[in-house]
Specification:
Alpha-Beta Plaits; GMP Synthetase, Chain A, domain 3; three-stranded antiparallel beta sheet; 2 domains
């Protein structure tokens, strides 16, 4: 498993309704709710952000294809909106994407570009199976703890908190391998690499301490994913 983004999108919400600070790899922006739902409309709402992903991905995908073909199409416009229906407790979401090209563009090119738009990465995500996995970070103490050390640092595992997100075993298999006993091999990577991976644990099941007790892992909510 390898994440699409090297740094996760990180959101924070304080007591100001409902102003969310969204941090991404190159800065931050505000997301908010409309006034009618109690927000201040200081930034795009979640539905707008979702549709913006589809619109921008469509535009970039089409522009890449047009440039590769050498076609003279100076402007592309895309509108997107959605509605939902519910039948027998099954919610169905319909996203309408309207694509406009300059007047006079040949029908064959329009048809081909429509096919290309349907292949944009965000379209593929939305039209295929999506599973949202949610985790909460726990920092409370538990009775059962297993410890693994390389002499420099000690990794502490709390089995009852482990939800098996797969991040450790897929991202650092040389250290974390469910088929070996013990499943943590501390000689499989250097201490800094192990520490960085442990701090990505989303549940708090894994943590680390420096053997001289001068340091310990204190993953932030952003690091926890």
């Amino acid at each position: 498993m390898e994440y699409k983004l090297q740094k996760p999108v990180h959101g924070t919400l304080g007591t100001e309704k409902y102003k969310c600070v969204i941090e991404w790899r190159n800065g931050e922006f505000i997301a908010d709710e409309p006034v009618k739902t109690g927000g201040q409309d200081t930034g795009p709402d979640p539905f707008t952000l979702l549709l913006s992903s589809l619109v921008s991905c469509t535009l970039v995908t089409l522009r890449m294809y047009i440039e590769r073909k050498g076609w003279d199409i100076p402007v592309i416009k895309v509108n997107a909106n959605l509605f939902q229906t519910k039948k027998d407790d099954e919610l169905t979401t319909f996203i309408d994407r309207d694509i406009t090209f300059p007047e006079g563009l040949e029908v064959e090119k329009k048809d081909r570009l429509l096919e290309i738009a349907q292949q944009c990465p965000i379209s593929k995500i939305l039209e295929n199976t999506v599973k949202v996995r949610s985790y909460v970070y726990h920092d409370e103490d538990v009775d059962k703890k297993l410890k693994y050390t390389n002499g420099d640092i000690t990794v502490v595992w709390k089995p009852e908190l482990c939800k098996h997100s797969g991040r450790c075993v897929t991202q650092l298999p040389g250290v974390f391998n469910l088929k070996t006993r013990p499943w943590v091999t501390m000689t499989g990577a250097d201490s800094e690499t192990i520490k960085a991976q442990v701090e990505k644990c989303p549940t708090g099941a894994l943590s680390w301490v420096k053997n001289d007790n001068s340091e310990s892992s204190t993953p932030s909510s952003q690091d926890a994913g």
